[in-house]
Write a structure and sequence with these properties.
This protein is mainly alpha-helical. The protein has one domain. The protein has 12 helices and no strands. The longest helix has 29 residues. The relative contact order is 0.22.
Length: 305
């Protein structure tokens, strides 16, 4: 973590985390598919307008196919799964569950790059599983059971983000960050368009829902993801894991402040276990894991060629 980037890291984490609250407000009225499709297409339009207003050129640098895959892994699938999960889960719990992204990233990097995990990394993955079980299984006395499919949906979203991160590092190295963000969201919008058109909302959204969507599009999507790519460019991929440490804290705080959601002992204990697990998994140098992934991809391309 670099001191000069700490304020920006805190801002990005806070903006990403409040997105879970915005989704919780808007998804019952719009449905998951419509909400996410509007979110990504509007965010792409905001960023494109900002780029053109600054008289900057977009340089996507890749074909349609890679962007469709990126948009599916990094936006369409995880955004939709998370929104669907938040129909039944608190926004704060969804944010904490998404903190498993670095755990999935480490596991996928090891599997794809054939990297051997050290003892601390293996312990971290096991501890992360325990943390998720605590988060999803412990409830205060008298409280209802959590919705298992919703929890699995959010965890699947975290896994999709991890896969998207690994793919981005390989396939989009050197691509302009703004163009990459716009292409990611535009491709996700194209992928989701048929589902969104097939599931329109039953009624016009209220002013509260419109305000939540505006915040989700501008703050938690366009601004936060553009700033996130700046952090990766300036400080390296280690930032991704560091942001993962902060989002659950801000997510629980936003849920308590704006939605009056309770912060339970299971969330505190389970979230603490997940954070400890991420610290152990992060013991391996991220640059080493990424180099291994890139070596594997180069080997595959040479073999297929």
């Amino acid at each position: 973590m670099f001191r000069r980037d700490l304020p920006l890291m805190l801002a990005v984490a806070a903006l990403m985390a409040i997105g879970f609250t915005f989704v919780k407000i808007a998804v019952p009225a719009l449905g998951a598919a419509v909400l996410v499709d509007v979110r990504v297409l509007a965010a792409a339009a905001v960023l494109a307008s900002w780029t053109w207003a600054r008289r900057r050129r977009l340089a996507f640098g890749r074909g349609v196919g890679p962007y469709l895959l990126l948009g599916t892994l990094n936006a369409a699938l995880p955004f939709t799964l998370t929104a669907w999960g938040e129909l039944r889960l608190d926004a704060s719990l969804a944010a904490i569950l998404m903190a498993t992204i670095p755990l999935f990233t480490a596991a996928l990097s090891a599997a794809v790059a054939r990297e051997r995990l050290g003892p601390s990394q293996r312990l971290g993955l096991l501890l992360g599983l325990v943390g998720v079980i605590v988060l999803s299984g412990w409830r205060p006395s008298g409280a209802g059971a959590l919705d298992g499919p919703s929890i699995l949906a959010v965890l699947a979203a975290a896994c999709s983000y991890a896969a998207g991160s690994v793919y981005t590092r390989h396939a989009f190295a050197g691509v302009d960050r703004t163009s990459l963000t716009i292409g990611n969201f535009a491709a996700a919008g194209v992928v989701l368009a048929p589902l969104a058109l097939a599931t329109p909302p039953a009624a016009a959204p209220s002013l509260t829902v419109i305000a939540a969507m505006a915040g989700l599009v501008v703050l938690s999507t366009a601004v936060s993801f553009r700033a996130y790519f700046v952090l990766i460019e300036r400080s390296g991929p280690t930032v991704a894991t560091s942001i993962g440490f902060l989002i659950p804290v801000f997510g629980a705080a936003w849920g308590a402040i704006l939605l009056h959601e309770a912060i339970t002992w299971s969330m505190v204990i389970g979230g603490g276990i997940v954070l400890a697990a991420m610290h152990l998994v992060g013991g391996a140098r991220p640059d080493t894991r990424i180099a291994g992934v890139n070596r594997w991809f180069r080997w595959r391309l040479a073999r297929e060629g």
